[in-house]
Structures are given as C-alpha cells and as structure tokens.
Design brief:
About 40% of the residues lie in helices and about 15% in strands. By secondary structure, the protein is an alpha/beta fold.
Length: about 325
C-alpha cells in the first residue's frame, strides 16, 4: 500500500506542485486547506478537506479517519511586510496553529513531518552563500515564527521522537511546465509574477522597494529556485524520513543571486515587453542579499535541481501567466 501523506496548504502555490509531485511518485495524498491564501483551482483531485491546521476538533476527526505516514506543512503566512505590520497574526497562524497540528500528530502517533521553512530565519547575512551553519537572527516576525517552529520541532524530536525535515527556501519561482498550475495569489506580492503582470499590461508599473542597498545596482539580491525543484527536494526529504533517517535542516536555493533590476531585464527578454518601474523606499525587514548554499542537501540526499538559470524559470512562469491573463498576452 502506498504511503499516505497529509499535505496542509495543498491549494497553495508550492503545495499544489508538491501534491502533483507526490501523486506522480505514486503516493496517496490528502489535502487540508482553508483557502485563505490557496485557490480551489489549484487543488488536484478530490481527496481534500476545507479547514485550518489550528482547528483541533477537525484535526482530531481527520487523524481518526485517516492513517497518515507523514505530514507536509505549507500553510504558513509568508509576507515579510505584512508580518511587520501585523505580527500577532503571524504568531497565531505560523506558530500557535502549528503547535495544535503537532499535538494532534503526536497523539495519533504520526511521527514524520516536512516543514516549509525559509531563508528569513538567517536575517542579514554575515557571509554568502549562506550555509545551514550560518547564525539565525531573523529581522522580521515572519522569520521569527519560522525559526520558532524549527526549534519546537527539535524539542519534539527529543521528547516524542517526532522526526522532521525543515527546508529553508530562498525564493520559489516559476510554474509547472504544463502551464496548468502556477503562482496564483490575491493580492500578488511576489516579484516575478508582479513583473509579468506589468509586462502583460495588467499593472501600470512595478514598485522597486529600495534602490540604495549595498549591491552593484542598489537593489536587493535574491536566490531563485524553481517550484518543481523545491517539490523534488521535499520528495527526497520525505523518502529519507520514511526510510528511518534522522531530523535535518536543509537550504533550498540555486546558489545564484539576481538583483531586482536583473530580474526585470531577464523578464523583459523573456516576454518581449517593457516593464515600467517606479522606485520606492525600502521595506522594513528586507535584507540586502540572500544567496543559498545548497551543498548539504545535494550531498546528503542527492538533490539535483533541473533549473539552474533564471531565464527558463521565468519562461515557465510566463507560460502560466499568459493562460491566466484576461488579455491573453502573446
């Protein structure tokens, strides 16, 4: 019998790609999503339930009805700026509700957990590329909540034998090559889809938040990794846990950094469209440079990203975006 995996947040951007990856690998998948940021259109299959990871009664019924071999958690709030203006919402959703989930798992003897973490746990880097041994000093409540969950997972391993893998994403980007699932947020806050909206004429311009960072062109530098490469890394982590491996933390990035201005230029090349830009002030809590070292997961789990350049990543995002655009930009 195929292992059964509970994917929380399976109607979201990364979660929906993970569900497809799991099913293609013959796993039995059940989705839990409250659709607060996910979208019903991205749910693949009928095995799903609308609800939150913080609903204790719902979780009790779910774990009594199904026997899960592992849980994957993609249901955190993830916007740095929003976390600065409303930190309690982030502590409630990302930390308190995750605690409710872990309590239910432990009581029902589900002892394998894959956690969607973030490079925001590192804060302002003291060296790049950033390895897993880099000090964790988050500069915003979003990073604080993710780091708190990682520490909670470590304590749950010691106390209850809950084995986990925390995957620290840098910047997820792109869409499935099929073009039928991709990034779909309302409102959209991620750089690449916003750029593509401007390229297609859905937005008048994009705002560049900060042009005075200590980088070559003054704009932030980020490391972009294709969403299907992220899903493959999660699959490798899941297989490791199911095989009896110990808890781990891994970075997931491309180890290449691109400034905001560079991303805009590459997107203009891909789309053949000019992207109007308006300079704006920095967003509080945004580090200047975040570039990953993913050597550990490559060495220990054999992760081999298929996308090593930004241009083909943006090409997959553009294919998805054109299918969603009311103007059907060509």
């Amino acid at each position: 019998m195929a292992p059964k995996i509970l994917v929380i947040g399976g109607a979201g951007y990364i979660g929906s790609h993970m569900v497809r990856c799991l099913r293609q690998s013959s796993y039995d998948v059940f989705i839990l999503d409250n659709l607060s940021t996910g979208n019903r259109r991205l749910i693949l299959g009928n095995d799903w339930l609308e609800g939150s990871l913080g609903e204790a009664g719902l979780l009790e019924r779910l774990f009594e009805t199904h026997t899960f071999d592992a849980v994957m958690h993609f249901a955190a709030f993830s916007q740095v700026g929003e976390s600065m203006s409303d930190p309690l919402a982030y502590y409630k959703n990302n930390l308190s509700e995750t605690m409710v989930l872990l309590d239910a798992m432990i009581r029902h003897n589900v002892k394998r957990f894959i956690f969607s973490s973030t490079a925001a746990v590192y804060g302002e880097p003291i060296e790049t590329p950033i390895s897993e041994n880099h000090p964790c000093r988050p500069t915003n409540p979003y990073g604080n909540t993710k780091l708190a969950v990682e520490r909670m997972l470590s304590d749950c391993d010691s106390a209850y034998g809950l084995k986990s893998v925390a995957l620290r994403y840098f910047n997820a980007a792109g869409a499935d090559e099929s073009g039928d699932i991709g990034e779909l947020h309302n409102p959209e806050t991620h750089l690449i889809p916003i750029i593509l909206k401007a390229a297609s004429g859905e937005l008048d311009r994009i705002k560049v938040f900060g042009t005075d960072y200590p980088t070559e062109d003054g704009t932030c530098i980020r490391d972009y990794v294709h969403v299907n490469d992220l899903a493959q890394a999660h699959l490798l982590a899941l297989d490791a846990l199911l095989s009896g491996e110990e808890s781990q933390v891994y970075n997931l990035g491309s180890s290449n950094g691109f400034s905001v201005n560079q991303v805009i230029r590459i997107a203009e090349k891909v789309t053949g469209k000019e992207v109007p830009v308006m300079a704006s002030s920095r967003r509080e809590g945004d580090p200047a440079v975040l570039i990953a070292s993913s050597d550990k997961i490559k060495r220990e789990l054999g992760w081999k990203p298929s996308y090593t350049q930004l241009e083909p990543i943006i090409e997959t995002a553009w294919k998805w975006h054109r299918q969603q655009s009311p103007t059907q930009t060509t």
